[in-house]
TrEMBL record:
Gene3D superfamilies the record matches: YVTN repeat-like/Quinoprotein amine dehydrogenase
Organism lineage: Eukaryota, Viridiplantae, Chlorophyta, Mamiellophyceae, Mamiellales
The keyword NAD belongs to this UniProt entry's keyword annotation: no
Highest rank taxon of the organism: Eukaryota
WD repeats: 118-159, 156-191, 245-278
Keywords (A to Z) from UniProt: Repeat, WD repeat
Entry protein name: Uncharacterized protein
């Protein structure tokens, strides 16, 4: 038996989970074998730690290397689990903050990064379980419900108000843009659904709300309507503003592109719609 004490926290460790070591580990001592495995511990300080463990073997002592420290939950952790390696070897953690966070080894060296936040429970989340042969996850909560999540989807979090507009890049489905009443447009890499998945955050209408947004059909530009009565046009390669279409006297709530990407139609709360050349 090896007893490990974490000197950096005196908070209780609530849960632990084990999975095989990755066969493609870049560190030889972490590579998959009968004498090595990966252990995660979840603590009441809101932190999960991933450890590479090698059992005592052939007279050599057991070794433990802390490979990752997973921070993001705002309160203590209740449980942690690994999915099967067939479904990405995801790590799931649940917390009193009402969320489940998903983490993934990004480089084969047990460097776990947050790739998703599952929100929807109305109270503390106490437990989780991955399906053994499908991309499904179940969570159990003090709100009296168990929720089954399809891991092919995810929740993008970060806006500070209602999210009004959403659109995928027409030529790269990994890129998603959202427009919010918090006054920003966020562009996301959907492979990462925490703040680490945000490619850029744009403020296009001063302190006013952003409404509907749309990529041009060729993916070269992004248009965003706003409560300041304008439509902002952004270069989708640099995310720099290239035009401001002004003329409406009230909120521009929706925008649409012509098939040749040479014109934009704007619809406004001033009871008019306009066609613009770009």
């Amino acid at each position: 038996m090896v007893n490990v004490h974490d000197s950096q926290t005196s908070r209780p460790i609530h849960a632990a989970a084990i999975r095989p070591a990755p066969a493609n580990a870049t560190r030889r001592e972490d590579a998959s074998s009968s004498s090595s495995f990966v252990c995660v511990t979840a603590s009441w300080d809101g932190v999960a730690k991933v450890h590479a463990v090698t059992r005592a073997h052939g007279g050599r002592p057991a070794t433990i290397r802390t490979a990752s420290t997973c921070r993001g939950h705002s309160t203590g952790l209740y449980a942690c689990e690994f999915s099967s390696l067939a479904f990405g070897g995801l790590l799931g953690t649940v917390s009193g903050d009402g969320t489940c966070r998903l983490w993934q080894d990004r480089d084969g060296n047990l460097t776990y990064e947050c790739v998703g936040v599952l929100e929807g429970h109305r109270d503390e989340v106490n437990g989780l379980a991955f399906a053994p042969n499908a991309p499904l996850l179940a969570t159990a909560s003090d709100d009296g419900t168990a929720v089954v999540w399809d891991l092919n989807g995810g929740t993008l979090t970060g806006h500070g108000d209602d999210v009004v507009g959403v659109c995928f890049h027409p030529r790269d489905s990994r890129v998603l843009a959202t427009g919010s009443d918090d006054g920003t447009v966020r562009v996301w890499d959907t492979r990462g659904t925490c703040d680490g998945g945000v490619v850029t955050t744009l403020t296009l209408h001063g302190s006013r709300e952003t409404k509907r947004i749309a990529f041009s059909p060729n993916g070269a530009m992004l248009a965003a309507g706003g409560a300041d009565g304008t439509c902002a046009v952004v270069d989708a390669s640099t995310w720099e503003r290239i035009a401001t279409l002004a003329g409406h006297t009230d909120t521009v709530f929706d925008v649409a592109w012509s098939p040749d990407a040479k014109s934009i139609v704007t619809a406004s709360h001033d009871a008019s719609w306009r066609v613009w050349s770009v």
